[in-house]
Amino acid sequence: MSEQKANIGVVGMAVMGSNLARNLAHHGYTVAIYNRTFAKTQQVLADHGDEGNFIGSETVEGFVQSIEHPRSIILMVKAGAATDATIAELLPHLEQGDIIMDGGNSFFRDTIRREKEIADKGFHFVGTGISGGEYGALTGPSIMPGGTPESYQILGPMLEAISAHVGDEPCCAWMGPNGAGHFVKMIHNGIEYSDMQVIGEAYELLRAAGIGTDEAAEIFAKWNEGELSSYLIEITADMLSQKDPQTGAPLVEVIKDRAGMKGTGTWTVMTALELGVPVNGIAESVFARALSSHDDLRAAATNLAGPDRVLQVPDKAAFVEDVRQALWASKVVAYSQGFDEIRTGGVEFGWNINVADCAKIWRDGCIIRAKLLENIRQEYSADAGLVSLMAAPSIAPKLAEYNDAWRRVVAAAVQAGVAAPVFASSLAYYDMARAPRNNAAVTQGLRDYFGSHTYERVDAPGHYHLDWSGDRSESKTSDN
Ligand code: NBP
């Protein structure tokens, strides 16, 4: 009788890989597992071996041989050099048609490179974004695979089975070729940055208005019952109500005011800059984290003058509702920017990404899961070419309704000296986008003045240059 082979293999038995392997086993798959340090594989077998069918191997060769051909192998190792090292170890043991799926947080440009190198050798490479943290990996994450359609035919059913579901719909869909999956995951994380930043700004404004942390926790819990309902708002309420085990004070007040980051937000902004897509809200969120950790700058600025960050609020309930509306509006603008980056990148890289599918698979399993995503999915399903989410039929009227509150909150924050960079920059983006004319004519006039960069006229086609240092005559430099 032939030895039983695994349906799929997982490399990397740290928190994400081991939980994903268990999730696969819970769904009836036989899972081969391997980790560079064998002790971790042994630990997973000892702790969870009875949860399903696992085949643990000490060597890469043994691991590869234990999987049925064509093989599906998921990498859940540290992104970057570790991923390249693991691929290099696997390749000599693979056969034509085998699939390596990278489920780590790899940069999509690395994925494009790896896909090309590996495809040239006759194997499939599937860069896949996975969101949901360690709990999601175990119970059902949101999964964003790229790679070839043929590899999705093999991997897709397994990934869909282990993903989160909304009703019968899996939170997993093929995003497009090569780097599309990691590109979408990168922007998911960028949006996650802005989601967290607007929550932080709302909390700080509530505190500046004299609302205590416990009451703020209740406010977030209440907000979670309405249109802001989302995982991040839900856990904000829970996190704010947590007391410090040492002092009994609200834990949030003893956590150092310093936010870390691992790079996906920075990549989102870098890529947006390369694509020429303004993602102000996401960029402000990345910069806010950077400033929070810029100790010497903050130390040098402590004595700078300004208001004392106290808001005089005559009607507390009205102010809380204003903050809620400003939070919703700022969040939606940041989503609009993120979806613009997905749409633009999809065209630029030739991926033809279905934007509605992104919203669909983010409705559950991932960190930004939210009620709003069903709404966004419906908008992009109705109009796949939707240029700006802000202008969507169900969104624009809401932004109009919340305009006054949004402006009141930004103005109050500025007056009181409370920094609310995403609330303010989202409003500036909204105002710039809707204005028939902005201040770019001044910039272009100056560019022509000092650098002969030419300008276009409002009343005629073509490009023009003014002889600024001579007789100030105008010449037409091109017809278009
Ligand atoms: P880590 O990102 O901490 O990576 C640890 C794993 O990488 C271990 O299995 C380790 O093996 C292996 N590894 C390293 Br480090 N260098 C290696 C090398 N040169 N060759 C082979 N293996 C190597 O694990 P994680 O937090 O479980 O995350 C796994 C992936 O999933 C990452 O890309 C991460 O960005 C991504 N991700 C994480 C989360 C999350 O919430 N944590 C969410 C979504 C995605 P060893 O045991 O021998 O050192």
Describe this structure in words.
The structure is a single chain. With 480 residues, the protein is of the alpha/beta class. Helices cover 54% and strands 10% of the residues. It has helices at 15-26, 38-48, 60-65, 81-90, 108-120, 133-139, 149-162, 180-208, 213-223, 231-241, 251-254, 264-275, 280-292, 295-301, 316-348, 355-361, 372-382, 396-416, 421-434, 440-451, and strands at residues 8-11, 31-34, 54-56, 72-75, 99-102, 124-131, 142-145, 165-166, 169-170, 455-456, 463-466, 474-478. The chain has a 7-stranded mixed sheet with strand order 3-2-1-4-5-6-7, with helices on both faces. The protein is globular and about 85 Å long. The chain starts with 7 loop residues before the first strand and ends with a strand. The site of nicotinamide 8-bromo-adenine dinucleotide phosphate has 22 residues, from helix 1, helix 4 and helix 6.
Summary?
The chain is α/β, with parallel strands linked by helices. It has helices at residues 15-26, 38-48, 60-65, 81-90, 108-120, 133-139, 149-162, 180-208, 213-223, 231-241, 251-254, 264-275, 280-292, 295-301, 316-348, 355-361, 372-382, 396-416, 421-434, 440-451, and strands at residues 8-11, 31-34, 54-56, 72-75, 99-102, 124-131, 142-145, 165-166, 169-170, 455-456, 463-466, 474-478.
List keywords for this structure.
three-stranded antiparallel β-sheet, 480 residues, 20 helices, seven-stranded mixed β-sheet, binds nicotinamide 8-bromo-adenine dinucleotide phosphate, alpha/beta
